[in-house]
Amino acid sequence: MNKKQFIALVTVVTGLSYTAGYAQNITQQQEAFKGVIGKTLAESKESWTKPVAAPKGAPNVVWILLDDVGFGATSTLGGIINTPTFDTLANEGLKYTNFHTTAICAPTRSALLTGRNSHSVHEGGFSHVALSAGFPGYDGRIPSDKGTVAEILRENGYNTFAVGKYGLTPDEDASDAGPFDRWPTGKGFDHFFGFLGSATDQYKPDLVEDNAHVKPDGRHLNEQITDKAISFIDRQQKAASGKPFFLYYAPGATHSPHQVATQWSDLYKGKFDKGWDVFREEVFSRQKKLGIIPANAVLPDRNPNIKAWNKLTDEERKLYTRFMEVYAGYLTYTDHEAGRLINYLKTIKQLDNTLVFVIIGDNGASKEGTLNGTVDLQRAASAKLSLQESFRHNQEVINEIGTPNAIQGNYPLGWAQALNTPFKQWKQDADSEGGTRNPLIVYYPKGIKDKGTIRTQYSHVIDLLPTTLEYTGIKAPEFIRGIKQDSIQGTSLVYSFDNAKAPSRHTIQHYYIFGARSIYNNGWKAALPYHPDLIDVANNKEGIPKNYRENVWELYNLNEDFNERINLAGKYPEKLEELKALFEVQAKKYNLYPYITWDDVYNGRIHKNY
């Protein structure tokens, strides 16, 4: 085979462009031999490959990512639900209140782990067969030239562990037959314990350890993943004391199904009897007192599709309150399990040497519970219940809310808006801060000087990888396992650690989730809402009115109107056109084309090749 034929073969088999640099880097994965080889040992000189070591003094790194938590849910950000672990980390660290996710889980997680926008790593939708498409922005397969933080840290002397939700393995690869290159262990993690999908039962999870499915032991998943995270670190510390580790701790909580022991949900008995309207007002007031939001902020109106609490019947209030008691207990329990991990690090005297990032939610609070909430959506949907019928059904099974029988447990839409205080809209809405704005905590005793302070710099999940690399003294690699790497797209936040007034360096950011879209640029934001009829998706006969979906671009000045109350599209049409043009530039650059919407998904316009 001549050289030209060999190059052609490599290109076809690997999909890579073969270059001299690529070939050279393959040989450099192991350090080149520097000794002398003679015919005999006496004529030869030995040379030893030096083991890879992390930069001197590099800290351990822990990323904690919660699921489906609204901006105003936790006590950390002025909410009513107690989260003492996160409160402590925030009070001894930094609170970033202008941090953003993508508005839905898999895109957020892919962007977080790679430091690149979700469509550019092929996760504009999901890795699930039903929600992926055969286009570069949507096929659900993260390319090897977009290496993860785990791959980078492992090649720089870290041990790497992940527990909980992964959500980025294509369905067709998720059996014990593999292939395993898109499982967590194929993306840089030494060990993994959790589930590969987007959601799972908390008592009967679809559980995986490393590269095989395992049988759950009946305990709550939060407890199991925390125990496993501790065991991973314990073994590593005993075998390689002094070697830093990276832990990605991503519980399935608080995604549905909301399942938790009554000892936790009973903590909130009667706490939400005042309802979601009073909840919003109380949280909004607390957020102002804590300086989380501007002192002159105004609370947006309640969504017109949600009834005022005082207009509900006693039966409705009783049912909806129970949903919220369970959710609150679920979130407090999740904080408790994260606290066990933090306390363990303190016990082994590693907490002071650990850089901790906590992202409170991979998107805003979930709108997937419908107007009435859901207990067992599969049964309700199969029966095609009307709104009234689904309410009656939920009444009949009210005692199952929060239990292992609540296989699709989720709160009603009214609580989703309340949990997203002070913003409009919710999960999936990439046009709205309610879908994309989540709190970030940065904790590191050795390195954080202004403990307990707030940072308002604009930031996004793609920023955590470059932040981690800069703070640990590791450069983004040109190659990983011989594959030339695409550039990192995020912006390190280290510049803001010691300077609360530093101007934002992340100045442009686009968002797109199945039709909903927006573009941010230096405080201005253009947004195009796209709201499918939620209730119809759940097969209810009475849907949200069609006028709920208005595909008209909106314009906001977030510097003066942080929670998007005043639409300036009519006042500044030239600014709107400028931002719309910028969105198109981003769309072409980052694989957003073709625009795939929820209607395309539900109407079967996405054609599968398997």
TrEMBL record:
Keyword Metal-binding found: yes
GO terms for MF: hydrolase activity; metal ion binding
Keywords per UniProt: Calcium, Hydrolase, Metal-binding
Every Sulfatase N-terminal domain range: 59-474
One Pfam family recorded for the sequence: Sulfatase
Family in the record: Belongs to the sulfatase family.
Name this protein carries in UniProt: Sulfatase
